[in-house]
Amino acid sequence: MGYDNYNEIFSYLGEKENALSQRLLRLSVSPDISRQRYDNVEPITQPQQQSKNRYDNAPNIVQSSSSLGYDNFNNKDDIKSESVSSSSSLTTQSNRYDNTSPNISDSFSSNKARYDNTSNSTLQDFSSSESNFYNYKGSGQSESIYGICNVQDSQSSDPYSIYANKTTNNGGGGNEDNHDIDLKKPYFMHDISESDLLVLESLVRYNKVLEQPKTDNNNISTSTYGQRLQVLQSGYLEDNIKSNPYSSYSHPKFLTNDNLNVSNASSSCSSGGNSGGSITGKKMDNIALYYWSSEFQRLLEMDDCLEKFERLSSLEHDFVYAAESYGRIIISENFLANELKTIKPVNVGGVAGGEKYIVQGILFKFALENEAFGLYGNDENAMKTAAHELNGCASFLNCGVKGLHVPLMAFIDYRGFRLMAMSLLPISKKSLIYGSCDAGQTVHTSNNIFNNLFLNASKIINLKQHYVEDISGDIKSISGPIDIEGHLGSDNRFYLLDFARLSPPEPPKHRGSYLYKLLRLELVRKYQKPLCSDAFSPMSTIDSNKHNSEVQEAYDDLINNIIPNFSKDIQTRDEIGLKTNLLQDLLINISLKITDISKLLHAEGINIRYIGEVASHCTSIGFKRFFTIEAIVRTLKSLARELLRREMRNIHLPSDYPYRSLLLKFLNLLFDDYKDKTEYIWNKIILEKMEKKFQNIFNNKNTNKEEPELSENSPKLPVTPQEIIKSLLTTLPTREMILNRFCKSIGLVISKIAITQFKISNSFVFVDTDIEEIKTLSTRLNVIDYADGMSLYYKSMATGLNDTSKHRLLTISRERLEQSLLTMNYNFQIVIQLSKVLTLLAKTSQDNTTKKLYYSLANKKLSTFDTIGVVQSQVLLLKICRVRTILSHLKFEGFILPKEIEEIEIIINEIIEQSPDKAYASYLLAKFFDYLFKYNPKFDYSKVLTAYNNIFKIDQNYQKAHIRISLFLLRTQDNNKSFSKEKVSEHITKAFSISKNIESIIDKIKPLIGFSPWIFFEISRTVPKLRSMVKNSLEEKYSIKKEKFTIPLNIEFEVDDLDYFENINVEKIYFDEHTNSNNIEVFSKIKPDIQSFISRKLKIDDCSKLKSLSNLSNITYFNFGKNQNGINEWILSDLITPKLRKLKLYEITKITDLTVKLIASTCKDLEVLDLGGCSGIFGEDFNELYKGCPSIVKLALPPFVDNLTVSESISKLRLIKLDLMKCSKLTIQSYSKLLDSSKTLLKIRSPTGVPIFNIEPQTLTSRHEKVNSFEPAVRYSISGIELFQIKISGAPQGGKTYELFFNNKHPLVRFRDPLNSAFNFFKAMHAVNTKSHSTQLNIYKNLGTNWTSVESSHLISINSSICNFKIEYQGVSYQFLLDTSGFNNSTFSNEVSILNNKIALISNKKTNGSHLEIEIKIKTSIIPIWIAIASSGLK
Predict the structure, then answer these.
(1) 1197 touches 1171 (CB < 8 A)
(2) Euclidean distance between CA atoms 415 and 485, whole angstroms
(3) Per residue in 492-522, pLDDT tens?
């Protein structure tokens, strides 16, 4: 496909626009026919004479068309443009399809129609003195008090006001039909009149309002008005010539070289706006017209990888940079004669939006009102359609439907103009296969493949498939707007163009608004039913009433539900709506939290024009002011753009100074002292425009208005709009906020010095040096953020990065992806990728709380998105990603609620049913059950095995399943009585045998090696790569992760195994429960430098080989606890050496006092000695032990020691820890006071296993929680670790049961082999308070695991709210002073004393019963009985 030159393409474009123009003409001639086809609008019928006059000078109208997407050219070496003579033809264009007749002005040399917001608005009496101009009294009075003008309503002078008086004759009856009701509305509504704009312009440019002569009827004559307008537009004033450096010339030709052929330039200019840039005869060498598009599509079609996203980001960066660079030049030279322009326009036909330009394969086109047809009403509305075009293009790009392609696109805002930039596409007039290029006269749906692709994309966007009828009567099915275009390009790709009307319009209040007042695509996407793009438009549709009513419902939902809910939600989001004493503080707080309100609004489907509606539902004054500031900024932006466009029209200069000067004057007018001109401009022009542009901005629809807290001296809050505006402009923080946001909105850069001075000044005058630059603002498809996020994601996957580096890259990746999601908010690929990034962030985070947050965010992203997915394949992929995220979270946290288990199981079963890969879906289910069993041993073991076996029924060679079931079997061998090492080896062997590439299989089992390298230890001896992996895994586990170095029972070492452990540096090695004595001997040769050897519960037969441990040259610690068969005094005689610092021989019955003698004579530096449970030791030689080992600080005594031995150990040793477990001969009196008598002793374990320890004076505050749903508990912590908890439950006769539990893991409680070691807490006290005639407290003692025997009973008499009672327990008398006179009998205090010494006060009075505090008065030991009794208050 293709053309040898431009001529054929231009012919196509001309034919297209000709068809559009002719249809518009037919509509104007045949209103009755039009009314039948467009039931919501009716074409304009101009007065016959006026129409005749308008076309007298154009007898031969050639109406050619140019659509934004079709000004494309084929890449040929010699491309010529056919010259178009504008002297004999008038080229016109309509970007969109209205039902109005052409409204062509008498002369195209005037640019007035482009810049006027209304027609025929008249200036009134300017004869008043300038002083009267500033006699502003307020908006509450009539407009005459302004003293200068009585401006007419802009709508009354609208050229389309003929609709208000139009009636339709039905059979001569003259009755008005239903359609004529809508025609009474003007075609456009303007938010500011031309007269106000002229006043603003004169104030900005000349600092005064020019006087106009009056006529007899108090109106300005047409000739006078025309002169006045020409004076304002030309820039000449006799009294201002000196101040205007540009008043000496009216055309920039005077700036050019004297040798310039002026006559040629003049003739060129007079020949038409498009003739000066003809490129006929010029060769375009080495220019690939379609480079941007072809490279863009090629990159999008690549598989995801780092190169793809780096090049994609670079491509859009380059495209936007080129568009900005060339666009700035094109806009700057817009009003120059073509021969003076750096970039020449091309002749493609049509005048809509002005001239077109093609530079380096990029098509540029202005988004301006067409001065002939007046489709949009003004340039501002035309700019909105450019934004809709870009949004529509982005929406299809975000759909993720493979096979549909869109061009690269952006628009540039500079000096008030908007310029569209789009990459050229390889299409032609013959490539159209979908939609219409002639306003629905011909509708194409010829390619079924494209039709299906477009239908899938429209389902994602939630657009309604509807029927249309073309001019031939054929009925076609269209899923988007009728004027969208689908092409089959010369590169065999499907392309989409013309997206401006993709979203349905809101119900039009003014004819023509269906082109630019559209609903947000985000709203359409989330709405409960598909919506029709052609609703409320004059396109030929069937069932238009139904389509209109559905869109009306969506609009009503937006106004009545979405906007109010958003207003409520945003005031509570992130606690930014909290009250403050100062309104300005609240505003600053809101501004810091909400940096871009437009993105938040758009994400909810709310247009910016509804800021007023949002504000009207706000209850917070701070938020109302925040939205008011946003409305002010956008109103100022609109006015500034209008002034810049007018200035460019007036002076025609490409230089920067005039426009900087204009904005400088505008700033000084806005931010001058709030009086005279400034007050007038704000209250008369800006305020009125803002109220029309953002309706209800000052209204209060929510009566629950929250006022900020005010002091007695605080000024009264402003109420009227004028007072609010004045307050915002005279308050420094809000004044600065308005300036900064306004400058940012138009690309105006103010110097930092000026901003700093402006912050602190109530009166500030800007000067030339304060303005640094007028920047070019660009809006793009936002592929850059997505590409950057993806490239960072792939970079984080690089090998060799630590978790910190990965986390940083992933954090930036998350920011980029979330930024792209704001503008591509239903791109499921971004959602999936963002969830992956969040999951990886969780895995690389060090903090558990942060991990949980990331997992929760990832799951939330996926769960909210899959509810609105409509394409089955996408929904399936989202479900799979969600399950994988949940599995990662479950693997980390190990906890899941029962209802979540049921929900996830349902999702996985849906995946199994829908997925073509049944084995993988079944694998997800088995993995889920595997995790459930891992963290909940009560889960059905057989259910996990069944899930794995189901995988093998589908695919016996599923490698991942073989590897994972191996892990599962290894981990659960204690739960599986039939476990065998051979079964695990079978699965591992199967995994190896599935593929011939053994190396790849080894890589896949790496997680299994990491879990348990010892399983592969013996096998790896003959496989070098596996040997290396096992060695590395051992080093990682024991040298890096510092895991406990425990030798498995079934390992047999060889001397050649030395290299496995050569890089492992460990101090302790564990040989617990071993039966192979040869292993101990060999390993002592492999690692002779270890310092600690722990071998408990040995079951070896050949004890002699334990003597080989004497070869451990650096040994300082032996632990042979609970060894009944392997350890005796003969073995210990070689192992007890002077180097020992720790020796634990507990529960060994074969050692006697001889061992104590050996220790006393050998281990002078011994610090830890554990002889607990050694029943063969009677303590006959402990005096020698104390003398020979004076450094012992931790001591566990054997069972048969007496009270004297214990007291001597305290007096002769500087003990910090004493274990008396099972020392049954001791009395409570012998050890209960040891803490008081020793200066070093910190804790004691009593013979019953209850710890005794001292606590320094401090206050302990409880936290109330429930151990489970039936057991409320009071918990106390010391040093950030929970120390003990008291559970309170019911007892007979209305009493209470009190149980005290100590935390085994707390340093003050921790001892070797604690009670109830399977759990964190063990029970230390059980007491029951019964109530009959009097209160009786029964204290129970522990008999094994039962607390059934009463140890002591105590009668307590409580006769008043304040009472004293005593309790004698284990030889100690505790005195209690109980006070229950607290508020509502819900609070109490209980003072504890021993021998009249107050040791503690326990009370909940300070917190009114919410918390219980224990105030330790003096250093004392924690005894469970007094803690429990005092904490209960006997309530």
Answers:
(1) yes
(2) 32
(3) 999 998 898 999 999 988 777 888 899 999 8
* Cβ–Cβ < 8 Å for 481, 518: no
Average pLDDT along the chain:
75
pLDDT tens readout for residues 437-484:
888 888 999 899 999 999 989 988 899 999 998 888 889 999 999 989
What one-letter code names the amino acid at 1297?
A: T
CA pair distance 1394, 1376, nearest whole angstrom: 9
Q: What are phi and psi of 578, to 5 degrees?
A: -65, 150
In angstroms, the CA 1233 to CA 1251 distance is 13
CA dihedral 136, 141, 146, 150 (to 10 degrees): 160
Q: Provide the sign of the torsion angle of the four alpha carbons 1254, 1257, 1258, 1262, taken in this order.
A: positive
Distance between CA atoms of residues 1194 and 1191, nearest Å: 9
Using an 8 Å Cβ cutoff, are 1372 and 1353 in contact?
no
pLDDT tens, position by position, 1341-1357: 776 667 778 888 887 77
- Residue 1368 is predicted with a pLDDT of 80
18 contacts 506 by C-beta, under 8 angstroms: no
The mean pLDDT value for 1027-1056 works out to: 86
Instruction: Return the sign of the alpha-carbon dihedral for residues 995, 996, 997, 1001.
Output: positive
φ, ψ of residue 527 in degrees (nearest 5): -70, 155
**pLDDT, tens digit (0-9, with 9 covering 90-100), for 930-962:** 888 888 877 888 888 889 989 999 998 888 888
Q: Which helix (H) or strand (E) holds 779?
A: strand 777-780
pLDDT band for position 1285 (cuts 50, 70, 90): confident
* 1231/1372 Cα distance (integer angstroms): 13
Supply the pLDDT for residue 47: 38
pLDDT of residue 211: 55
Short-list 1000, 1074, 1065, CA closest to 1039: 1065
In terms of DSSP H, where are the helices of 1124-1249? 1129-1135, 1153-1162, 1182-1188, 1203-1212, 1228-1232, 1234-1237
Mean pLDDT to the nearest integer, 1020-1039: 86
Exposure b/e, 540-550, CB count within 10 A at least 16 = b? bbeebeebbeb
Q: Are 875 and 913 in contact (CB under 8 A)?
A: no
Give the strand pairing for 1117-1119 and 1092-1094.
parallel
Tell which residue, 233, 270, 265, has the closest CA to residue 250. Answer: 233
What is the SS3 assignment for 1140?
A: coil
- The CB density around residue 189, as the number of other CB atoms within 10 Å, is 18
Q: Is the pLDDT of residue 1413 over 50?
A: yes
Residue recorded with tokens 């309509």: 94
Cβ–Cβ under 8 Å, residues 185 and 41: no
C-alpha distances in angstroms, 786 versus 790, 820, 839, 986? Answer: 6, 6, 18, 46
Helix (H) or strand (E) holding 433: strand 432-435
Alpha-carbon distance 334 to 366, whole Å?
10
Structure tokens at 1056: 């050649």
pLDDT > 70: percent of the chain: 73
3-class secondary structure per residue, 149-198: CCCCCCCCCCCCHHHHHCCCCCCCCCCCCCHHHHHCCCCCCCCCCHHHHH
Displacement of CA 1175 from its chain's centroid (Å)? 66
Collapsing DSSP states into helix, strand and coil, what is residue 247? coil
Confidence label for 1274 from pLDDT (cuts 50, 70 and 90) = confident
pLDDT at 269 over 50: no
Phi–psi pair at 481, nearest 5 degrees: -70, 150
Distance of CA 799 to the CA centre of its chain: 28
Among residues 881, 885, 905, which one has the least CA distance to residue 893?
Answer: 885
